[in-house]
Amino acid sequence: MLEDLMASARVDHLQFGDCQVGSVYEVTFTMTNRSQVNAVRFEWPVPAPLRFSPQAGHLHAGCSKDITVTLRSRAAVNLRKSLVKCKLSRIIFQQPVDQVPDWDNHMRTVKWIDSGKSSNMPSKKKVTETDPEPAHTVLEENYQDLDLYISAVIDYASFSSQVKEVNFKDTMVFQTRVFEFDLTNTGTVQLGFTWLLSSDEPAKAVSFANPQSSTSRGPTGTIFDTARKDLSSGGTFRGGSTTESFLSHAYSSSSTYPFSMEPISGIIPVGKSQKIKVKFSPLEVGEFENSIYCQIPNLAPGAQGLMVAVKGKSLLPYCHFDLVESDYISSHKRNPDLGGPNGEPLDINTRVIEFSALGVGTKNIQTFTIMNPTNKTYSYRWISEEDENLQNPSPFMCLTEGGLIHPEKKAEISFQFTPQCLDLTEAFWTFQIPEHAISVPFLLVGRATDPLISLDVPHLTFSSLLMGHEARATVFMINNEEQEFNFAFEDSSCFSEGYVNNLVVKPMEGVIPGMSRLPIDIYFTPKCEGEMNFNLICRVKKKAKPLTLNVKAEGYNMKVEIRCKESNGVVTELSPSQTNAINFDEVGVNECVQCYFTLINPGKFNFNIASEFDGPKSLQQYFAFSPAETMVEAGQSVSAILSFTPLKKGFVKGVELRLKVTYGPTYVCTLTGSSVTPAVHFSFTSHNFGTCFIYLPGMSLYKQTLVIKNNEDKPVNLDCLYTNTAHLEVTWRVVVIKPGRSIEVPITFYPREAIFYKELIPFEINGLSQQIVEIQGKGTEMKVTVLDPENRIVKFGALLPGQVVKRTALIVNHSLISLTFNLITKLNVMELSESKVLTMTPCSNITLKPQETCKVDIVFSPNKRIPQFNEEVTLDYSGCLRPLFLINGCCQALEITLDQEHIPFGAVVYQSHATRRLLMMNTGDIGARFQWDFKKFAPNFSITPTKGYITPGMEVAFEVIYRPTELGKESLHKNLPCTIQGSKPLLLTLSGVCVSVSGVKETVNFSCQVRSKQTQTIMLSNRTNHTWYLHPIFEGEHWEGPEFLILEAHQQNRPYEITYRPLTMNLDNRKHTGSVFFPLPDGTGWLYILQGTAEAPKAVANIYREVPSKTPYVELLPVENWLNKAQRFRVIVDMIKPEKQDLSMTIKGLDYIDVLAGSKRDYKLNFFSYKEGIFSAKVIFRNDATSEYLFYLVSFKVLSAGIIKTIDMTTFVRQSTSASIKVENPLPYPVFFTTDCRVPDISIPSQFAVQANSEGTISFDFQPLKAGETVGRLNLHQSDLGTYQYELNLKALPGRPEKPVYFQVPLGSNQALNAKFINYTRQKTEYACKTDNPDFHVEKIVYAAPGGQGGTEVNVEVNFEPSQLGEMRGNLYVSSLIGGEYVIPLIGLAQYPKPQGPIQIKAGSSTIIPFKNVFYHHMTYSIIVENPAFSVKAVDTVRSKKTNNITVSFEGNTSGHKAPITTKLIVSCLSGIGNEAGVKWIYYLKGITP
Fold first, then answer.
1. Minimal CA–CA distance to 1471: which of 1439, 1424, 1426, 1443?
2. I need a surface site. Which of 228, 1114, 1149, 1172 has the fewest CB within 10 A?
3. pLDDT at residue 140 in the model
4. Nearest to 780 by CA among 799, 811, 757, 747
5. pLDDT tens digit string along 719-752?
6. Rounded to whole angstroms, how far apart are CA atoms 176 and 180?
7. pLDDT tens for each residue of 886-897
8. 768: which strand partners?
9. Distance CA 814, CA 784 (A)
10. For the segment 1018-1076, what is each residue's pLDDT rounded down to a tens digit?
């Protein structure tokens, strides 16, 4: 089934969820063809509102394709598991699969074509064409559908709310009032909301404000900042009413908004509601109103979002407590059974001040301020409502029980809490302002917690301890608090009952730092037997109860017995109080003698016993005690052995054995004995071969014989433990040497390298002792060369016969040692071997010391023509041959010869004639004229031509005719001359006999392969009384036999062998014909007719070779010329396998080869194959003139080529680098290569094309995500050209820093910017973020969306809040296990603070300016107002990175005018150092008098 072959997104249900109308949503899934054979065509429908991309396409076997589903609807739609069927069809392509490209209906090709416009500029236009679908055939019988379910809800959002307007009750300044209502999602999709202020700032109406003070415009659509910082404010009091504590919101601008929403944004699921809080937090007196708009996306056309109108009025209190609000009462943490002061009910307006103390007896002070916002001074006082008790005083005390508070000023109030127990403590106090009859109840709550200080163990056990021996244990005191504490152990708790035993504690007292572990060492030394118990007490300051540690211990004595059984059987009990003697007497070298010990424990506790030797180190190694250490359990015994194994001859004394019992006695034994060695004599124990030449086969060996003699009176067993190596060989077999006898051990040195050798040959005697023989030697290279490299070829040039030339070669010995050698020459030209033609002096027993030279004279004295020669002169050293130099030259002369000096015509019938062919050959170097003395040929012989000119290398054919004129007469012409210009005449002998025609005695048939031979035997008989001396006469060039034959009288069946040796094959199926005639003394003769069949030749050789693919290979085929003249062969290569032409393979060579007469020449057959396989061919060498040929059968098995090239690629992390590979296509048609690379950091196309008979280039990219080195493999495959393997050496360097982020902000402000980096991972990735400069702040975790080839940009918000002036640098480190690490430089410039304001203050009122200490330490600031009409606290200390409020009061224009008064508020550092001291913050103030 096709469904078994396909997998379309393992999850077949796509859920888009809630979607907005008109918005676009995309989901991508993957279709995979799991079949390894079949290709599939898919086609998705086009149902609205869905769209598939691609909608149709092909899936090759084993391939996959990403499908993107796009959802967009302009109307409400509800899809619940809507079924979409994909049509799948199995298809077959009309071309091979590897030549069919991938296809889908979204593939496009961009082309640039001529636009047809005439212009000086190139006129091209861009045309995008849809790729055509490859030709294929659909197999309808395998039709199948693939189901996909899709769910989505597309609709407009809708909501409901019952609130359109919120009117807050009157609220005190610095307090917050909250109103809650529900926002409900009534639609079918999720509801998103965001609260926005209206375009205007909230309008305010102040009863004492200037009528000209109108509302100011704020930023349009300001969104509440969710990152705003919360400032704690205390409670206020007016007329006895309170509201909940408030949270103020600081904005970057000077305006403050009294209204806020919570949450400011969010998402409400379908059918759910969200609680919305509207907060009113006034910071100044007045009436406020505004409209808050709820922005809701995806509303239906015409629908409006929610608009809430808010109104509120703020009142000025008489006093303000800058006190952190407590939820002790509001959160019901207090016991409801507890009442108020004096048992009365608790006042609902009671304010709570909470104290926390660590430990008892410590003073804890709580400080806060009270502000007088009025314009009059009043007094205050604190009254305790608790009854005074001297025996149990209250832990609470007010340090400032009364005082005055001036207008617009603050008073600092301090309470002290000193707990005496760990219980919760309460006390009631009352705050009063007598001038205004104001009374505020306060509840003081104190909690004291015990310090978390403990010991890591509650008890300690020392177990059983030997009396008089100290034991130590360590316990840890653990402090889990931030502060340090004092501790001390009680002395009396360190003693046991009766003060007999005691513990030692270190340290007895001290200080344990916060959050630390302090080791406490406890030492105990038992003084008596039995069990002991201690209770250690440690008192820790501020801790209610002391720490206790229970310590238990037990003391005991040790009991030991040791018995020794010597080799003679005597058993002795060792005494710990005196020295014990053990004598081993005489022992052979390496012989082992033992004594047996018994270690007995009669006590009730286990003990350990250890052995050690004392005395000369060289003698200690002869002894061994086993086991060296052991434990003997109570009531048990353990056996031990003392071994004595002497390593060399001598007397042993002064060695002691000590047996130490842990916490017990020590037993001392003195050890004595003597050792003897066998008397075996070695002729030498060390030998140095000296410096030797590196061994080569054929050299004489470096050998030395070691003689070993047995001088003992008993046989000795001798073995050699040395393993032969490549450079040293010891000829050895295990032997037994009889008394007085000796053996010889050959040692051969084979130096393999020019290094120093040192070997130790161990000989083992009787399996006990060893004798070491040291062998040394050094290898050196033989460096004998011609002194002048130009003289490595001694050139004589071309000489003439009789000319004598002398040359000199200077030979130098660059070796490290002397050597004696001979100079030899294997002459390939026979003429040079003649006496005194080529001589060298000296040539034998030449001795050269290091760096010494020798002069060798070479004399060339030719007396006749000698062809060009190159003879090698070889150095012969001890059978090792090494070439030194070459001798080349030649002797040019006239050399003209006849191919035969005697032409026997044999028997020729009367009145007929016979013709023979004669060749004259000029094998010399000079041409010459020739002329025959044709008159001497008469009357029976003639020759043509009779004269002429023969050039070098030329052949002249003569025709010699024999016409006998007398029957039975034998014609013999000896030494017929042919005159040669400049040379001796050539002589020719002719013979023949004239016979009458007689019958043929027999026809002899021959058959063999051409250029082979066959011999036939005929039987001859002499029936006469006379001996016959017969001279057989052969006619026909293919036969031969003995030239002389003797037939004795009456000899019968005398065998005569005729050999058929055809040099040419039969032409036109005509046999070779000839005859042999035996002339008899009686004037008759025997005539035998000869017929021969020459068959086609067999293969010269069957050659089989294994060669790598894509590598040229040359096979040398020897070609032999069987004729006595040069031949030219035409070379034909016939392929046997494969039968069809394979263009990926070439096998070729030269079309012709010329071979000299009677010689051989190698023919170079070149073979090359791109792919693996077996290829066979028949290589034929044919002489076109004679049609003769020879051939070879050649087979090549082509193996894999292996690694073709190693490609090195180096780049920085996340930086892409490219490399390219050039691939040649020698075929006459285009080919497609497929790529295979398993390295994830390599990006390469899956396939690429190379045009016919051209070269293609494929480029690939290396983009690593992590630093390091990797080795990978890249394969390019093509069915006709095989596989190309490349090795990739990939190196990723640590990444370069990303683009810096620059900040510029005044000191005291902050700036948030996005640092950007590219995520290249293919999945959602979590990155950890951190900075190395505390002035830069960043979220710890950031998530990156999956990135493709180009990556996805990720933003990381970095907040820069400088702590000093000038430039600050840091690095942002973003790291992930998958995506690697990014380093982003951060550069911030902190400028001088910019002036702010103007800040308006009405007469008789004050304003608060938040001021933050930007430094990393406490700082005291000076606050100065230039105009005395304004007042402010002159000095204030602010903790690090904390914000304090600066209260500025304006008394009004004292001159009586209402004109505004402007001034500056300057804040500067009093305790600043360096550039901190010069920093000032300036605020412009504007006082308005109504």
1. 1439
2. 1114
3. 67
4. 757
5. 888 888 888 999 887 688 888 888 999 999 999 8
6. 13
7. 999 998 888 888
8. none
9. 6
10. 999 998 888 888 888 888 888 999 988 889 998 998 999 999 988 888 888 888 988 88
Place of tokens 């392929």: 1135
How far is it, in rounded angstroms, from Cα 103 to Cα 60?
A: 10
Residues 352 and 329 sit within 8 Å (Cβ to Cβ): yes
**For 996, phi and psi rounded to 5 degrees?**
-90, 160
pLDDT surpassing 60 at residue 232 = no
**Residue 1236, Cβ neighbours under 10 Å: how many?**
13
Residue 54 token pair: 């691609």
Report DSSP letters for 273-341, one per residue: EEEEEEEE--SSSEEEEEEEEEE-SSBPTT---EEEEEEEEEE--SEEEE-----TTTTT-S-TT--SG
Question: What is the bridge-based pairing of β-strands 230-232 and 247-249?
Answer: antiparallel
Is 195 buried (19+), middle (13-18) or exposed (0-12) by CB count in 10 A?
buried
DSSP states along 1329-1373: EEESSTTEEE-SEEEE----SS-EEEEEEEEE--SSSEEEEEEEE
Q: Are the C-beta atoms of 5 and 36 separated by less than 8 Å?
A: no
Task: Write down the pLDDT at residue 123.
Answer: 64
Q: Which residues contact 119 (CB under 8 A, 6 or more apart)?
A: none
1172, 1200 in Cβ contact below 8 A?
Answer: yes
> Helices then strands (H, E): number in the chain?
1, 121
pTM higher than 0.85: no
Instruction: Please tell me the predicted confidence (pLDDT) of residue 544.
Output: 83
Return d(Cα 783, Cα 853) in angstroms, integer: 12
CA–CA dist 993, 912 (Å, integer): 12
Residue of higher predicted confidence among 628 and 232: 628
Q: What are the structure tokens assigned to 190, written together?
A: 């999720």
Query: Please, are residues 5 and 33 in contact by the beta-carbon 8 Å criterion?
Result: yes
Tokens (6 digits) for 731: 């000829």
Phi, psi for 98 (deg, rounded to 5): -70, -10
Closest to 1265 (Cα-Cα) out of 1207, 1219, 1301, 1211: 1211
Tell which residue, 546, 422, 528, 402, has the closest CA to residue 485. Answer: 546
Q: How confident is the model at residue 1005 (pLDDT cuts 50, 70, 90)?
A: very high
C-alpha torsion 575→579→580→581, nearest 10 = -170
Mean pLDDT (whole number) for 75-96: 87
And the tokens for 1209?
A: 């690629």
Q: C-alpha angle with apex 1129: 1128 to 1134, nearest 5 degrees?
A: 165
Distance, CA of 789 to CA of 561 (rounded, Å): 89
How do residues 556-602 score in pLDDT, each as one tens digit? 777 888 989 887 778 888 888 888 988 888 777 777 888 989 998 88
Taking alpha carbons only, the member of 1126, 1130, 1103 closest to residue 1114 is 1103
- What is the mean predicted confidence (pLDDT) over 930-953? 88
Encoding tokens for residue 49? 């509102």
Query: Measured between alpha carbons, how far is 191 from 1121 in angstroms, rounded to an integer?
Result: 102
Q: Do residues 936 and 973 touch, judged by C-beta distance below 8 A?
A: yes
Query: The tokens of 955 are what?
Result: 């052949």
- Mean pLDDT of the residues in the chain: 84
Q: Look at residue 1204 and tell me whether its pLDDT is greater than 90.
A: no
